[in-house]
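Now for a chain:

_____
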Amino acid sequence: MLFNLLQVAEPIMMEPEPGMTLPQTFMAGGWHFMALITIALVCALFAAWKAPAWVKSLGKVVLAIGVMSFLMGVSDMADACAKVGNRIPFSVYCSGFKVALIAPIYSIIVYIIITIADTVRRPRI
């Protein structure tokens, strides 16, 4: 039964290992969400230079993408676990949450970078 769970959940819950490289972590966190967050970071850094009023809005968008990716990841994990049955090890749930938290953690880091960029670009009083 565990083999069936891992077979169903493998594409959804690729467990990040301690020795994973940055590209592997990027892919495990869901490349589409991670790419959207990275694009928003580049846009916010460009906006800090050209359109400063957009920086805070882009920071909020980054956080919203992170929350949405977490909710969709947990939903995918729950669907995969529901397909298998009721005897699922707790470690599978933990690895699913671990993978689901990659994009939100990245979005928080990007939000901190955007906030610092917004603070630095403001005129000094």
Observations:
- The chain is about 75% helix and 0% strand.
